[in-house]
Amino acid sequence: MSKQPVIELFIDPSLDSAADIRSAIRSAMSELVLMPDWKEYYPEAELVPTYLVKSGINSLAINGIVCLQGMLKSPTQDEMVELLRNGGSGKRRFSCWRAIKNHFSFLMAVVIGFFPKCPFCWAAYMSLLSAWGIKRIPYQPWLLPVFCILLLANIVSLYMTRKKHHYGPLLFSIAGAFLVIANRYWFEDISIMYAGVALLVAGSLWNSLSKRMASSVKHYFIGWRG
Amino acid sequence: MPTQAERARRIWNMLTIPGPERRKIFLKNVNEGKPVFTINGQEPIKLFSDFNNDHKARVELHLQQMLSITANEGNYEKGVDKALDHVDSLDGKENPDLLKYTLEVYLLENAKKLPVQKPSILVKEPELVVSSEHVLPRMRLEFATDTDEPKMDWFREDPLLNAHHTHWHQVYRDNQRDRHGEMFLYMHQQMIARYNTERIALELNEVNPYDDLHQPISIGYLAGPDGRLSLAIGGDRQPDAFVNPDLANGLLTQRERLSQAIDRGNFDINPAAPDSLREETRAASRLGWELESGYHNSGHGVIASINDGVMGATIFAIRDVVFWEWHKGIDNLGARWRQRLPAYNLGAESKPLRIRKSVDQQGKPFTPDLILSFLKDIPGIDEAGFNGEAVGNTAFGGNNWNTEFISGSLNFDNHGNQATIKYTDSLQTSMKSGTVKYRLNGQEKNYKYPYLAHEPFGYFLRLENKDLVQKQVTIRIFIVAEGKQEDRRMWIEMDKFLQELPPQSKVVAFRKDSEAAVIRKPAVLNPATENIDFDPTKIGDNNALCDCGWPYHLLVPRGTRAGMGFRIMMMVTDAAVDLVGPEPECGSLSFCGATSNLYPDKRPLGYPFNRKFNANGTAITNTIAATDNMGWRSITIKLV
Question: pTM for the full model?
Fold first, then answer.
């Protein structure tokens, strides 16, 4: 047994055998060359896992599976070793949260990064979409000033949050907005429009990433330099 | 123009000219009707009290004059010289203690620009720090009341602890610094926590509040053999002395008004507010300042007025037993407000990492991630370029990451060299003796005083960052006497610092006791020898601001000869939530904040022990056992 099991003890600290139970866990883990390490919840504790609450006080869970319930006396060291062996090799209770935390942190960073998180961000996304189709719906002339206002709101919001990632996202978005608008009136070249939209998207994404997520992206794509 | 060293020497001299002589000259001038400094015909200040708001206003007046003289001179150094000339011009015309206090505050205001070396309190005011054990037994008023209080004299009369207290009041004097009121409550609460811990070691009861000012003060106090002769204080206070009943009525009314304001919810916060941390620190600051500037200062004055006693000035107030009783009453008001704050739900807060925990062989709570070593037992500690983290990673990381290190020694390969490191579950303290020397009334005086010392130690902290991102975490370390762990007001802050954790890394952080956030830095390792003589090589250090902080030699509670049980707790929080600015270059982060105006931790002072945990009996034990980012272990502290 090499992998450290997650042990949780839901115990009444005034139980006569509480010290013996702890001692048995400690000795068994030492025998299996594991670092003695477990989490304890007392009756008044907040956030006790549901499976322990359901099992009642004086229960022991290994890897999220309740192995002992209603303990009044301590198991022997051998019994505890056996439990740890079985519990440790048993399938760990699936936890969505643990899975997300352990395996998909980067993915989540990117996914969350793409979601607009505030009214201004929605405005930014809308402004991008509208900028793309700005000339193709001439029968709705009121849309032009609305979208221009949204574009402006996007830039203002980036300016207001400039402390987060400094001026990078703002400069990207200003350059993007300039290209989109300039293309609308002068160039009328589809590639310039795409370049402008790409800059707007990049600026918005950059800004919507948290500092931590930005670090994660750096870690994956640029290599960590901290 | 004088050189830097000459200017520093001049300042040293101004701060160390014997106080008794200057006081004598000033009082003689006053009594003989010679011209002295007064404002609008007010009486001259014969006995200076920095708790007295009128006296503080006078300090500010002189200070502003000095700052304005400095600023109006084109050349900064010339401006400083002129400001010092101004102080000299007031010699004999203004209260010398007030002038000295003003000069010290001026040095604080110029801390970043003016290179000086500040003398120890043992040189500045030697008569005032002499241990009262030299008072003839028949004069020791404590004896008359058949009390054990003199057992605590070593703590209350510690010269550097008195210096810390007065210096703190100089730094936090006018409600201009960030979170002043909150810091007032916290710094004094920590003093009481330590005082009570030392009392428990001596089998004394915890200090009782002195709230009912119509009751007599049971313990008398006589400051020291020469305190009275120095003219800085009046006579002795007899046991069972009463304060003036009218003044007592005034104070009781103030206390009642404050209690009612707290109970009415005048200082309550909205826990659902977007920035509830800031709300709490603001509310604590309002309450703290209101308490300090009114009730607290008046109380010092009223109690001191019985005998013009030591309670009247920050420089020696803490020597008196009644200081602690008075402050316990104030701390109770702070606690009364804190009791109204919602309990912490630490389990629901974000946790940057998990601290492992189990029990030790005796069945006491134990975390293998907090390892203690005496510095003398760490290989290479004295070598230049010593890297504690590297030694820690080699010894306690790698293949040993999952090994417990409670007490013993380990042979390991220290980068190609065989080395041995010892680790311990027991800290050591000892009582040492220093000497204070001075001349008074033409006589050479030479007195011994006791001070506590401890064997220097360091923490190795094992921290695992399982995430794919770099983390900066705040590590908080507290200690509490065994059996007192459920009393949040008994927890003593030991340290608080930042640690970088690379992505998916196992780091063994190392921190020396002399780096502790609570102590003044650079640490005064030996109170008996440091800052006693003027040293031109130290004039660049400007320790004016660094003076602020708990004395290093009192960092570890004294413990007992048999070994006193303690719990030491570490908590790791996300620095992205905590941090608002850089750590200070010197001085104490915990008690004095940063050199800039913003305190560099968003969380309330004393977090997480600033609030109740929940309504149940074993709330703190319960929370530490169940909360991932907290862990504790049992240690003993042995007085050898």
Answer: 0.82
